[in-house]
């Protein structure tokens, strides 16, 4: 809406400046009349069609009006030789990132046809340009050719850019949904741990009392049976509460406490070892930093995505190395799989990517996990390098932080 008003004001200023300041001679009323169409269409959008979001067909119609209105102005003032004829391609370029493919293709086709028409059919340039201005045929006909080439190229470029932007936006929305669920699960885990700890004492008291009652009424078969049932149900409740905690043997340190980088990796690997038959080899020999950092769900999920990918695409083994010194902390994740396909390697980190090789396509995802993991870790000051391992047969992910950045978390 604002862009259309800017275009209309620009057209009015240009026409009036040329007529009143530079003293060019043309029919001023006839020139201004097509601009009134643009003003009327804008007023229609403001006062009649008050929808903030136009449908695809509606947006196409208004962009078509813009093309027709501007083409009529160009027709009246010299046709394709008018230097402002380049503005004809703007609505079609705008449509490439905002309209559907069919609407965009139709608008591009109409624009190209209009450029061809005003090349051969048009009024002369305003006086005095029509007396002194001459273009050779080769130069003259190169103008519409260059405009049509620019129209197609810029439209294609905008279409590709718009598609990638939409895919990235969808991936970011999905990432936010995943992180929201992850935060909720952690919150539930914390509540479950708190409930287990709080109920532990009363359950222990009930169990002690039930044991005493069992001794007192051991000769009464009816009461003894009821007390045994009560004791078994108390044990069952205790087991259920323990299962609700993330790690009953370590209580709730992983939920509430700060962690070292070793803790992060250990906890993630434990979760994979429970469901995977593959071997995990962890090397801490070069890890000299054992300082705690604030627990970050984003780091946990980011690391889990990369370790999960290594688990998924490895043959049998996953190798994880943690290195650190006074300045940097580094995690290297390698596997013994096939590695990254060459045609995908340059696109790693983009959402919704596929290898062109058919035998790889069937066994790979869309790159969304890597995109989410990379985005989450980079948000937390990490630098990510994905490549094929020089020491193993598979892929390698290098995740690196400055120690001062980790301490800022």
Overview in brief:
About 60% of the residues lie in helices and about 10% in strands.
* CATH fold description of the largest domain: Heat Shock Protein 90
CATH superfamily of the largest domain: Histidine kinase-like ATPase, C-terminal domain
Structural class: alpha+beta
What general form does the structure show?
Answer: elongated
Radius of gyration (Å): 35 Å
Topology, number of strands: 5
Instruction: Report helical residue fraction.
Output: 55-70%
Number of domains: 3
Give the C-level CATH assignment of the largest domain. Alpha Beta
What percent strand? 5-15%
Mean pLDDT: 82
Key structural traits:
409 residues, alpha+beta, Heat Shock Protein 90, 3 domains, five-stranded mixed beta sheet, 15 helices
